[in-house]
Amino acid sequence: MELDYDVVVIGGGTAGVTAATTARRHYPKKKVLLIRREERTLIPCGIPYMFGVLDDPCKNVNPEHILSIRGIEVKIGEVKQIFRQDKKLLLSTGEEIGYDRLVLATGSRPAIPPITGLDRKNVFWIKKELEYLRQVLAALEQAQRVVIIGGGFVGAELAEQIRKYRQLDVTIVEILPYCLYTSFDEEFCFEAERELQALGVKILTEKKVAELAGAERVQEVHLEDGTVLPADVVIVTTGVRPAADLAQAAGISLGPNGGILVDRTMATSDPHIFSCGDCAEKFSFFGGNPVQIRLASVAAMEARVAGANLFVRRRESPGTVGVFSSKIGEKAFAAAGLIERIAEEEGYDILLGEASAPNHHPSALPGTFETKVKLVFDRYTGILIGGQAVGSDSVGELVNLLSACLLHRMTAVEMAAFQMGTHPLLTPSPPAYPLVVAAEEAAVAKLEPKQED
Amino acid sequence: MELDYDVVVIGGGTAGVTAATTARRHYPKKKVLLIRREERTLIPCGIPYMFGVLDDPCKNVNPEHILSIRGIEVKIGEVKQIFRQDKKLLLSTGEEIGYDRLVLATGSRPAIPPITGLDRKNVFWIKKELEYLRQVLAALEQAQRVVIIGGGFVGAELAEQIRKYRQLDVTIVEILPYCLYTSFDEEFCFEAERELQALGVKILTEKKVAELAGAERVQEVHLEDGTVLPADVVIVTTGVRPAADLAQAAGISLGPNGGILVDRTMATSDPHIFSCGDCAEKFSFFGGNPVQIRLASVAAMEARVAGANLFVRRRESPGTVGVFSSKIGEKAFAAAGLIERIAEEEGYDILLGEASAPNHHPSALPGTFETKVKLVFDRYTGILIGGQAVGSDSVGELVNLLSACLLHRMTAVEMAAFQMGTHPLLTPSPPAYPLVVAAEEAAVAKLEPKQED
């Protein structure tokens, strides 16, 4: 028996679900099928919280009804091969499914670092699989000492949750000078590390893991400098790689970082096949170079572009801005676009603006703490190219305001007269609003010294 | 003795302070004087919280050091007259002060509604004067029943604080169909009223006050429909009017709403005199018509334009967007630009987008509640003309993201592929992010029915 669909989406993660729902919104008469391997899918960014504040891992499962209420059919199964000539898929069951448009949203898999002994028992990755994560949780129940290899967002959030809610001995081993170093400038990394350390998380930076030693089960983490860390459980969070095998086997072009090559409409080298999310190659909003930024929020944006373009060309992705946020301890950290260090590495001549203010006004109001903003501008054009912030939970939306400023290439001069709304209980005060004050600092720095004469 | 300054700013509120600090930033060699009447100035938006959560009214006083560290001189005094020909000011002390550039930031004063008996004892306004507000607080100490005339932001916030922290019997009398009716569409007003009512605040809408009756002290509020409300204290919060007398006496042009007429550089009809804040006439970002929106955040923006333009023409105000936020009970309410009702009154053919999602993902995380967004687009161009939101405190920054979208005249199509950052503890999930989902709803609604064939 052969089933045919107008649209087949492979992958049940953020990209797949959003592409399918967008396709149905834009083309309500089309028959849409989503094929995924997992019976139940996880909310990817919620995974660290399955190890802490969420008392039941099932609470991080995606609600299934979103697909059914949108009229999207779901098949649990594995696609073995794509026959592009015939526009057909072969499933591992032998079943064949015809498509008119195909969306590849096959996601990513953990990157494997060059460490000996990764195959020992109690060495885990963060996979988006409920049953696998239950095994990690079971191992943690028996553990005293946990070593997390990699201090990016996932490693830092995981360390925070395991330490805070399980009181285990937690050590992060990071190869770079700071945790979160690819996303933040040093002063923000330092503040995040201080939050982790205040909770009792140990942090070793500029350290490389050589070997995971032990009998059957991992017992020690050996660093290249000779340090030996005892460990009952090791969790490896050293990033992800695009899962592009299916596309590659079908002769679809890949990009320089191994993701499925896409144009700005999210079409692959086959015009009937689109791709979005972690499996798709990413290009920077700043200059168009390939970047390794894989985020659920980027996946959702790409899926909204792919899904809308399936039958009529409707929108384009402007490239990946990269908008991050996290909460470590009591503080929210967020960044959008280029940080100072990376902007300089990319060859920009930059102008900085920095400002800080209490998140309530007057600051005597309860629950007040400081919101700090750092903006990076291109000196030549005055255009914003990046921003970072730390403060209360509202920083999670403040960074989205920064993203809007980035996407519209706002200049320091424009941002210095930005019309924000303010409220005593919700934001810093109008004269001190840090985004605007930081922009004014950069706008004024751009002036010639003798302007006023 | 005659003192001369390069820049004199009249007014010590948000506009005056921000204009003075901006002038110093842009023209660091210029001598700047700020003249104000009050020994100590209040944070205007913080005033309702002096009646509740702030246990000491002095905690809502502006920090004085901001002016001194910027090298701005301060004089406490009253300007009686402006001699424009001589570029001189006459103070009530008889002192004369010369200026090269003058900034009028004389603010606003409470509007006086046509009610009989406003001169009775225990009838108060919300003035930005510490000693006056101490009298209101003292009267409340003796009171049981408080009637607030006017259910705008100030009235609603005041009612909430007095009820919550003083457990008095509080009634709001509002002439319009809902509280907050000039800033929000009905469904948001309804939700805000429900929060107030849950705290025990009584609300009477579509009711007009005829008279405040009593012996010496106010004892009753008589409504036009015959209802009599007993009252120990009455607070009138029926809006403000620009304080433009000084400018008018000096022959400076006023605008249709009685504010000081300014161009987009914030210059008045006298090119050496600028004006900003509540005393300046406001023009809408949407079409340029005069509007009655007086906010500290608008004052700060205008002051940043005025201060930068004093000696070299550097920036323009694009007009007043109007960005509001407030917290009533447990919910934050915010709006930017035009609401549905006013957009229709202004003659737009509109498209709506509405969406709602939990502010955390998964929603099982603690402290989760719904964030609801409503967007108003111009159907013809697809451009955003307004947005409203209700939810957690982050709505205070979410509305600033809406303001950035408005200022850049983003379309529904652009916003539907907006690159936001998301985080389980800080924002809704990527597929459900309500601003984007609402924009997509409007973007799709714009499509012709037969687009896909």
Tell me about this structure.
The structure is a homodimer of 453-residue chains. Chain A is an alpha/beta fold. Chain A folds into three domains: 2-51 and 62-109 and 241-309, FAD/NAD(P)-binding domain (3-Layer(bba) Sandwich), CATH 3.50.50.60; 112-238, 3-Layer(bba) Sandwich (FAD/NAD(P)-binding domain), CATH 3.50.50; 331-444, FAD/NAD-linked reductase, C-terminal dimerisation domain (Enolase-like, domain 1, 2-Layer Sandwich). Chain A contains eleven helices and 24 strands. Chain A has helices at 14-26, 65-69, 130-141, 153-166, 186-198, 245-249, 296-309, 340-345, 395-407, 412-416, 434-445; strands at residues 2-10, 32-36, 73-76, 79-83, 88-91, 96-104, 108-110, 123-125, 145-149, 169-173, 202-204, 209-213, 220-223, 228-230, 233-236, 240-242, 273-275, 282-283, 290-291, 323-328, 331-337, 350-358, 370-378, 384-391. In chain A, the strands form six sheets. In chain A, strands 1, 2, 3, 4, 5, 6 and 17 form a seven-stranded mixed β-sheet that branches. A five-stranded parallel β-sheet of chain A has the order 8-15-9-10-11. In chain A, strand 13 (220-223) and strand 14 form a beta hairpin. Chains A and B meet through helix 1, helix 7, strand 20, strand 21 and helix 9 of A and helix 1, helix 7, strand 20, strand 21 and helix 9 of B.
